[in-house]
Amino acid sequence: MNETVHSARRGTAASRKKAAATAGAPRTNDPDRTMADIIEVATHEFSEKGLAGARIDDIAEAMRTSKRMIYYYFGSKEGLYLAVLEAAYSRIRRIEAGLHLQDLAPEAALRKLVAFTFDYQAENPDFIRLVMNENIHRGEFLAQSKTIQQLNVPAIDAVGEIYDRGVREGVFRPGIDPVSLHMAIAAPCFFNVANRHTFGLIFKIDFDDAAATAARREAIVEMIVRFVKA
């Protein structure tokens, strides 16, 4: 597994420890940090309970702050929820941008991107649940965010750049739309997290088994590469 993925995992564990520590710490006169800490706690609250079930009271209690402070920074529960979505999408796109895929040969770059997507989503189930919740709302809040829409442009551009290089070099077959390729990468990685409980129970699969997870990861990488190969 590449160093970037390890860093993402360490970042996830560290952020949870930080949130726990922050919950018991007094507030400082640092608006940016205060907002980031609120978003961190709210991310878990919204991912677990959805927009309707999440309570500002619980977030405020975990933060040892007041509801008034949260409303001061975010305006409303919906405003906080939107900020959580933007932060979640910003984080994955920021890490993707640091993979330096343009420095790799097309097939190697594609393999690295698919493996990263699998690892990131597996290590960040809160992100998957947030996306699932937003789909329940039919993308209502995501549609309000120019930030999220702008963030996804470079993501598609990156996939397109890898694919176009592969076509020019005769490695990949022509005629695949970059958005379709992006969806093909995201779908099995998303399913691996979103459906782990139901699929695992029905087919008696232990999704916590490291060897099985590694085999599933490699199978998804290979499936995508074979899909585009010339």
UniProtKB/TrEMBL annotation:
Q: Which residues bind DNA?
A: 55-74
Against Pfam families, the record matches this protein to: TetR_C_29, TetR_N
Q: Which InterPro entries match?
A: Homeodomain-like_sf, HTH-type_TetR-like_transc_reg, HTH_TetR, NicS_C, Tet_transcr_reg_TetR-rel_C_sf
Q: List the keywords (alphabetical).
A: DNA-binding
Composition bias of kind Low complexity appears in 10-25
Ranges for domain HTH tetR-type come to 32-92
Q: Does the keyword DNA-binding apply?
A: yes
* Gene3D superfamilies, per database record: Tetracycline Repressor, domain 2
Q: Where is this region: Disordered?
A: 1-33
Cite the PANTHER family for this sequence: HTH-TYPE TRANSCRIPTIONAL REPRESSOR SCO4008, TRANSCRIPTIONAL REPRESSOR
Name assigned to this protein: TetR family transcriptional regulator
